[in-house]
Amino acid sequence: MVKAVALVPAAGAGRRMGSETRKQYLMLGGRPLIVHCLQVFQEHPLVTSVVLVVAPGEEDRTRGLVTEWQLTKIDAIVPGGGERQESVRLGLKALPPDADFVLIHDAARPFIDGEMITASLAAALRSGAAVVAVPVKDTIKLVRQGCQVETTLDRNTLWAAQTPQAFACDLIRKAHQQAVTDGFMGTDDASLVERLGYPVELVPGNDMNFKVTTPTDLALARCLLQEITAPDGRII
Question: What pTM did the predictor assign?
């Protein structure tokens, strides 16, 4: 049986939120932001355990949330690094030794659903690496210097990457180690695999799976949650 583990990096400072509280602990619909995605992994039958990477010093606080919300699949809570890429690399070291695949998901994307998890794992089983993404809707301008537009890119070929991103464990470990050796810093985990020449399969996501980064994002998330929550608290 294939063993899939979720790795959730949640060590970011969240400076763009402008809050003294780290954004992953801000309340969204009666639950801390971080709890939303953790509950989805908790309920998914293909996810055997979860590794959570938090800011150094936040371990006890996070353990309290794990206990309060009965997140029994949390296998490890480890301190992260100064950059997301380093935090993921540290999280990879904490994966169970028998893990076959890992789903890396931003803690600040609360609207992940079970279908994304299932589709991501299926794609990773086929290709070794998969990334959830959505087609770009806006027209994208390439700017080289100052505010001068160099060209307009063909949006039909452009997709915005999201998470989860799913990988064979050996492959993503190799990609992160090579990035350390080369001093390369990527903007997501899939880019580390791409630069090694391995294929990455795209999994269509949805616009609800956005990352809560600013106060505007949080306000939008709260509005959306009111729209999709049933009277008994279930997300529909």
Answer: 0.93
